[in-house]
């Protein structure tokens, strides 16, 4: 019986259903509160653009809410784990299950199965919904919440190098030879890296070769003077494909699209450690929901009447939040190249899985 993790169908359904309902309740509560706070901080910026109103506020909510759901779903699983297991313990349901011969792993198995299903749903939700809403919101914010051109591919805050010179664009839209830039800045630098000339333009189009600036304004650094000039062609060494790869937003790309972009950047000799860490994290991130019942399991065991139930719940919560802290720190180290991408994404998950299993075995098994 100890190796049968689901000995009772009725009990399995009861535990899983209770857990899932509480995950949904906690998630709704968190998202509503956080969405309200976020809207309060951003509503003035959305409404600052002339003509924006209630429709644009609802549009912002539609773009932002999927991001909040994806970000706080693992936290919701953690809190739901603590609430569910602490309630079972307080009502002596855990004592009854253990008296019936169930081990700690058998009690947790339905919760782990439900959490695994949540992880799969979270991954699909991120791939199909969150990536699109992130891309749309970034493009809208780049236009200061004004009208966005109906382009199939929009990137923001692009920086490119042409030898010693720097070309930047606030928005990059389109693909191939039809690519366009908006909010363009061109910095000419000498051999020592000092800026000798700056040219600004509201827009630029690909001129094969180079980029043709519309209504450019030249700022001479030496003379400290800004002068309108005729349309000029710059950055002849920058191709449209280089421009498309100049800014990769991993949050706005699916797993397959990000993998393709990493391959192209690698072939071009560009550093891809940060993007590779994000690629692996697209897999390990949603799976963190599966880990939460194991880390919060300490709240399920120990007699409630001993007075330590609250302490156990706090310890479970601390373990869960410690995982998120370590996960973010490891991802940052991977972005800087201190950790290999695979280690940066998966080491925190494996470490806390072992910690959770060790606590469960040593204290309850």
TrEMBL record:
Q: What is the membrane topology here?
A: Multi-pass membrane protein
Compartments in which it is found:
Cell membrane
- According to the record, the segments passing through the membrane are 20-40, 68-87, 107-125, 283-303, 309-326, 338-361
Q: Which UniProt keywords apply?
A: Cell membrane, Membrane, Transmembrane, Transmembrane helix
Q: Which domain of life is it from?
A: Bacteria
- NCBIfam families this protein is in? LptG_lptG
Name of protein: LPS export ABC transporter permease LptG
Per UniProt, what is the name of the gene that codes for the protein in this document?
Answer: lptG
């Amino acid at each position: 019986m100890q190796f049968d993790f689901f000995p009772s169908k009725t009990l399995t359904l009861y535990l899983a259903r209770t857990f899932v309902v509480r995950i949904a309740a906690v998630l709704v509560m968190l998202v509503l509160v956080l969405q309200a706070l976020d809207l309060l901080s951003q509503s003035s910026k959305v409404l600052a653009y002339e003509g924006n109103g209630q429709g644009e506020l609802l549009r912002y909510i539609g773009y932002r809410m999927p991001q909040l759901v994806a970000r706080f779903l693992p936290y919701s699983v953690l809190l739901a784990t603590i609430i569910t297991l602490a309630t079972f313990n307080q009502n002596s349901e855990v004592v009854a299950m253990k008296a019936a011969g169930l081990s700690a792993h058998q009690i947790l198995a339905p919760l782990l199965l439900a959490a695994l299903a949540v992880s799969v749903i979270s991954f699909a939700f991120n791939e199909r919904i969150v990536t699109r809403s992130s891309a749309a919101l970034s493009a809208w914010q780049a236009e200061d919440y004004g009208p966005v051109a109906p382009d199939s591919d929009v990137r923001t805050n692009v920086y490119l190098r042409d030898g010693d010179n720097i070309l930047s664009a606030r928005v990059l839209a389109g693909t191939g030879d039809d690519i366009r830039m908006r909010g363009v800045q061109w910095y000419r630098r000498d051999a020592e890296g000092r800026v000798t000339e700056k040219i600004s333009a509201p827009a630029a189009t690909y001129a094969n070769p180079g980029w043709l600036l519309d209504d450019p304004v030249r700022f001479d650094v030496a003379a400290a003077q800004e002068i309108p000039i005729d349309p000029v062609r710059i950055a002849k060494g920058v191709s449209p494909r280089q421009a498309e790869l100049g800014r990769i937003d991993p949050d706005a790309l699916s797993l397959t699209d990000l993998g393709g972009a990493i391959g192209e950047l690698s072939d071009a000799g560009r550093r891809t450690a940060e993007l590779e860490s994000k690629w692996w994290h697209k897999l390990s991130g949603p799976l963190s929901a599966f880990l939460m019942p194991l880390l919060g399991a300490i709240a399920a065991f120990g007699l409630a009447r001993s007075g330590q139930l609250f302490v156990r719940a706090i310890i479970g919560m601390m373990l869960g939040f410690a995982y998120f802290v370590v996960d973010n720190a490891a991802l940052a180290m991977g972005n800087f190249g201190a950790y290999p991408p695979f280690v940066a994404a998966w080491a925190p998950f494996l470490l806390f899985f072992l910690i959770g299993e060790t606590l469960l075995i040593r204290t309850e098994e």
